[in-house]
UniProtKB/TrEMBL annotation:
InterPro entries xref list: Ribosomal_bL28 (IPR026569), Ribosomal_bL28/bL31-like_sf (IPR034704), Ribosomal_bL28_bact-type (IPR001383), Ribosomal_bL28_sf (IPR037147)
Gene responsible for this protein: rpmB
Matching NCBIfam families: L28 (TIGR00009)
Gene Ontology CC annotations of this record: ribonucleoprotein complex; ribosome
Similarity comment text for this entry: Belongs to the bacterial ribosomal protein bL28 family.
UniProt name for this protein: Large ribosomal subunit protein bL28
GO terms classed as biological process: translation
GO molecular function, one term: structural constituent of ribosome
Pfam families given in the database record: Ribosomal_L28
Keywords, alphabetical: Ribonucleoprotein, Ribosomal protein
Keyword Ribosomal protein: yes
Family annotation (HAMAP family): Ribosomal_bL28 (MF_00373)
Length: 78
């Protein structure tokens, strides 16, 4: 599963892990992406979304109808 949120567009960040001796090694900061199933009344079916924890909060605040409308406006097939 790709570490990309379909609602917020959050993608992995990159940086370094710094040890006690201050050696740097590359690392990747992945967003907290979960696969969630939502029922969308306007579509009359369930949809599966890869959403971050922040994306879940956005859906709770704005509602699934509003979020799905924005996703479909971007041209993403659900």
């Amino acid at each position: 599963m790709a570490a990309v949120c379909q609602v917020t567009g959050a993608v992995p960040g990159f940086g370094h892990t710094i040890s006690h001796s201050h050696r740097r090694t590359k690392r990747r900061f992945d967003p907290n992406v979960q696969k969630k199933t939502y029922f969308v009344p306007s579509l009359g079916r369930n949809i599966k979304l890869n959403v971050s924890a922040k994306g879940i909060k956005v859906i709770d605040a704005r509602g699934i109808e509003s979020v799905v409308k924005d996703i479909l406006a971007k041209g993403v097939k659900l």
